[in-house]
Design brief:
Length: 338
């Protein structure tokens, strides 16, 4: 499977091959993956030019079509809403960037899936040229027909039929699962295609890294402080100390830990009693991916995928990554606080 031998597996071919092994699949879910891949390419093209916008947009910040230059997160949100809303495969959308549900444009057919996305996660990293990402989550609709409703998007993460993310890093990668392994594709810029580069990703059982914003240390509970001390190596009888890596971009921090092994935490603190990250747009899709790669995700006390969502933008503490490390943190939290 290499360019040199002339054999490449595009995302399209890979999905078709997977489908052939599941003859009852209708292909609709697969098509949704291509739709996200297209959205990712549009966003990636804009991100690559991000540093040039001030240079190129100097004439009153308008581009050649006379449109105003948008902030990248607004651009990414519009691009994804546009791609996903005109497929006939989706009945309703929800985005981290929008307070309310996003309906399908009038006159367009309603499909049987509900999709949620965080169009540009870690966007504070854009200005300093560090990695950012897009996260997506897909459910089968619950409402019978017509426009999708809140009930279609407010489902526990265990009911996701697919989840994935795109990382806009030193290369652009799309990683997804439909419940049958976790697979990674790298965008070949010369072909404009996502090529299979990481089939069947498995997260190491024990990680090398821990990723957490330690500037919040003084605002954490005693249990969280103790767990992080464990990750530092303060309790060598319980857990071996780890190396620290924190970008402040969930997709990038998660991706490193998925490939190299590690644990990411965004715990509750005295300012943010439910942590910072959103259950529907960030925690659930990453939790589905990590579990299908052999890892674990918890809010400290409960499995993320079992949480019952009550509101679109609900937040949750998140502890996610290599199974044995997540179990260590959950055990410390239970013993100290539970
Ligand atoms: P965003 O969706 O507004 O970009 O915020 C989410 C980001 C995550 O990517 C990242 O894990 C976290 O915020 C970092 O937060 P902090 O700066 O508090 O460490
Ligand atoms: Mg986000």
């Amino acid at each position: 499977m290499s360019m040199l031998s002339g054999t490449v597996v595009t995302i399209e071919r890979f999905i078709l091959e997977q489908e052939r092994q599941h003859p009852d699949a209708t292909g609709e879910l697969s098509n949704l993956m291509y739709d996200f891949a297209l959205g990712a390419k549009i966003v990636a093209a804009a991100i690559r030019r991000a540093g040039l916008i001030n240079v190129l947009g100097s004439a009153g910040n308008t581009n050649v079509q006379g449109e105003e230059q948008q902030k990248l997160d607004v651009f990414a949100n519009n691009a994804l809403t546009n791609v996903m809303g005109h497929t006939g495969r989706v009945c309703v959308m929800a985005s981290e960037e929008d307070e309310e549900l996003i309906p399908i444009p009038p006159g367009w057919p309603q499909g049987k899936y509900a999709v949620l996305f965080d169009p540009l996660d870690g966007s504070s990293n854009i200005d300093v040229n560090a990695a950012v990402g897009t996260i997506f989550s897909i459910y089968r609709r619950r409402s019978m027909d017509g426009q999708g409703t809140l009930a279609d998007v407010l489902q526990p993460g265990s009911r996701q039929v697919a989840a994935g993310y795109v990382i806009y890093g030193s290369s652009v990668m799309l990683v997804y699962t439909t419940g049958n392994g976790v697979h990674g594709f790298t965008l070949d810029p010369s072909l404009g295609e996502f090529l299979l580069s990481h089939p069947n990703i498995r997260i190491p059982e024990v990680g090398k890294y821990y990723s957490v914003n330690e500037s919040n240390f003084g605002r954490w509970s005693k249990g969280t402080q103790r767990a992080v001390r464990g990750l530092h190596g303060d309790f060598p009888d319980l857990i071996k100390g780890k190396n620290s890596r924190y970008i402040g971009s969930l997709v990038a921090d998660f991706h490193r830990n998925l490939i190299a092994g590690g644990i990411f935490m965004y715990p509750a603190d005295s300012k943010n009693p439910n942590g910072k990250l959103r259950l529907a747009y960030e925690a659930n899709p990453m939790a589905m991916i990590v579990e299908h790669a052999g890892g674990a995700a918890t809010n400290g006390l409960e499995r993320i995928l079992d949480l019952e969502p009550l509101a679109l933008h609900q937040r949750t503490p998140l502890v996610i990554g290599s199974r044995s490390d997540v179990e260590f943190v959950a055990r410390v939290l239970r013993d100290t606080e539970g």
